[in-house]
## 1
Amino acid sequence: MIRALLVDDHQLFGEGVRSMFKPNDGIEIVKITTNGNNVPSILSELEVDMILMDISMPLIDGVGVLELMKSKGLDVPVLMLTMHQDMKYIRKTLETGAQGYILKDASKAELTEAIVKVSRRENYFHPKINNQIFDYFRGNKNPSEGDLVDQISDREKEIIACIGKGMNSKAIAEALFISEHTVKTHRRNIMHKLAVKNTAELVTYSMEKGII
Amino acid sequence: MIRALLVDDHQLFGEGVRSMFKPNDGIEIVKITTNGNNVPSILSELEVDMILMDISMPLIDGVGVLELMKSKGLDVPVLMLTMHQDMKYIRKTLETGAQGYILKDASKAELTEAIVKVSRRENYFHPKINNQIFDYFRGNKNPSEGDLVDQISDREKEIIACIGKGMNSKAIAEALFISEHTVKTHRRNIMHKLAVKNTAELVTYSMEKGII
DNA sequence: TTCACGATACCACTTTAGGGGTATGCGCTC
DNA sequence: GAGCGCATACCCCTAAAGTGGTATCGTGAA
């Protein structure tokens, strides 16, 4: 029997998954929590073989919980359970040490397989995102092909956020206490880094990639 | 026993909810479909007391299914089940005739209550969105306060999509086989309707509201 | 210690967006 | 059938974005 902890802010989903597993499935959701911050204390109280965790949660997100666990030396395999197919999330979770990644539109059979594999510390990637994983590792060998997003500095992200709010270069300059020239230079650098043609595409790209 | 049909593209969620209800709960998910287009044929085969439906689905969305049902004269009460707390979705579903609206982070007790009420053709609104509903009806008396989004015509949405892709007015004109002047007029109208200052804000707003 | 990078700043220039009008034809509704 | 919204199209003009440079300073890595 695999003892699993479920971390998901959607109560319905959590209770649903719990009742989905019958005793002879070999999987039991021993605890559900909607607050990732509780994970360390739960792990100290309960014996848990693996953690099923949603990525996007209000108080602390999946990646945050992974980091929290790592900082406390808690080493329980984690299967990320999410709707997001974006490389941004997949990448972050894998980098932070998740054992697997499965989409919420998976079937019960797929989830079962994923839970079993992850509890054995094997990797599981949902078929739909397997190709993206390969692309990611390929991209890693060619840094030029790597994700454009993390070439953006914090200051540049500030600029992007202002642009998204509809501020023009002058307004941004005043808000950040810098010259309008500097803002324009930043804009240019950002556009080159993200390989976009104009502000509109810059905003679209930034929102899709979660910069904004 | 309330016989419910569940329409959700997330298999896991669907199977989870199904197994959540035990015989003595008085609720049975008699069928799960991931494709809303199948709803009419399912209703002709099975006796169903109410429909639990996700709003955002790939092939046909919840509102689309409601419209499809209405066009075929199918009158089964529908409880919308979703993560979206946006007024945009709530409003559309209510306007199209949904009986209730519940968030996916509800508890089993709340879902049960909602299903029972909806099956009796009573309304159910998740507590979290009740206030928004009131605001909506208040807003209805003041049409100026209404949602800006649905003042946007289909053509204008096309223009917005092109802008988001980084196309300039000339490129959009060529793509849509219209004059650049027309595109500029559209842009102006859109910006006025959405009350935004420039393209960047237009893109941000449109993405947040789901126009793009 | 040199070298790369980020943040800052400036100049000059072209292109595009944005705002002011006005207008016409089409389909729908009251 | 008058009015309304929508898509279409054109005019003029200003403000802003976007493109080409160059340059200084500080910090942290090789």
Note: The interface with chain A takes residues 9-13, 15-22, 34, 81, 83, 104-108, 111, 163-168, 196-204, 207, 212 of chain B (CB under 8 Å).
## 2
Amino acid sequence: MQRSGALFSVRFVSSDVMFALVDVNNFYASCEAVFDISLRNKPLVVLSNNDGCVIARSAEAKALGIQMTEPWHQVRARHPQLIHRSSNYELYADMSARVMTILSAAAPSSECYSIDEIFLDIRNVPDRMQLANTVRSRVREWIGLPVCVGIGCTKTRAKLANRVAKKRPQFGGVFDLEALTPAELSELMREIDVGDVWGVGSRLKARLEVLGIRTALDLRNADSEWIRSHSSVVLQRTAAELRGIACIPLELTAPVRKQLVVSRSFGSEVDRYDALRESVLSYVSRAAEKLRTEGLLARRMQIFIHTNSFRDDRAQYSAEFSLKMPVATDDTLALANAAEYALRRIFREGFLYQKAGTMLSELTPAAQRQHALFVDPTQIERRSRLNATLDKINQLYGRDTVRVAGSGVERTWSMRRSQVSPRYTTRWSDLAVARAR
DNA sequence: TCTGGGGTCCTAGGACCC
DNA sequence: TCTGGGGTCCTAGGACCC
């Protein structure tokens, strides 16, 4: 590849790559409809935690004009008959794993980019269209989920192609951007809004429009240095990718996690310290469990709480407290103690709290554990066996069977999930057959 | 009444060092 | 009168993604 002087700050990958981006259509809504046939071909929305806002829509719901992240109470007022489901992440995660197993087997290497998307490396595939059609029908037949495939010589172009495959049904769910003539490609990019390019969000779109960049074509044709001076290297890279210069490589191994967040809005607002403490301790327990599952230790812990910023009739308060653990740890009780200390530091009487959470950072692999100088190693060993037992019991009998006492029994703050579907694929008791009886 | 949760990267500016 | 310059590290904030 010839390096262009104008692009000195953008790293290239290689000139002979080809990507297929496979993506499940309306993933959460489609998962729900796999098991409940009464939902098929109906307007259906899936809601965020607390049934707060819309996070997935079936094709029919999209046709009604329902937007992503629209508050549910507003949508329901407009469409009283609309079918809705609370989000069921246990189901979606399991369905995702099944889809990814099938798709990653279809190419020599791949990158799971999100819960419902995967990039396949198809540079040496002789017939790209055949591969795309094969994986499409395979996922449909074996899992029951519809997918679309976009093909491009950069990730950004594959994303664009995937978008075309989804929006224009005449292409049968597969679109190869690299099969177009230069004139056709320009024409297509002229029809695509710059905000629909991967990497251009709402803020950037607004700024670019002021500068006269309105379509994907405008961005592709813009001078690289001009983009750099008016925006950043990130957008410069996106524009290069649109031109067919691959800058974003396939990540073959999952990048090392840098932080871990567990936070939730409350089902109803909380003013008592005890209730806040219960919620914080339960989130910290969950975070510690995740650490152990992933074989990580955390050195820094942050606790945060805040009131509902949408309410202008109440005084607002938000605070966070961050502390460094004496040694990096994955111990539920050690983290819970630290969390209580942090919460006491930031709690203020007289506010209605809406959300709390914890963030663990400065993560290191558990294999590199550094012990404290004056702590008896057998005590650490005992504590680690206790945590392992905790995890085993909770895995066997359901989350929170055994938990930190302070995390609550009543749990008045817990989420609203009025319409949550069964965990069809991960709980024997929820199996579709068992339920039919 | 009701407004998600969990991530990453880049940049600018301040602190600090020699 | 004139008050360095270059480097690193950290943090907060802004932007993006799904």
Note: Residues 47-53, 55, 69-74, 76, 87, 232-234, 255, 257-265, 268, 308-310, 355, 357, 416 of chain A lie near DNA strand B (CB under 10 Å from a C1').
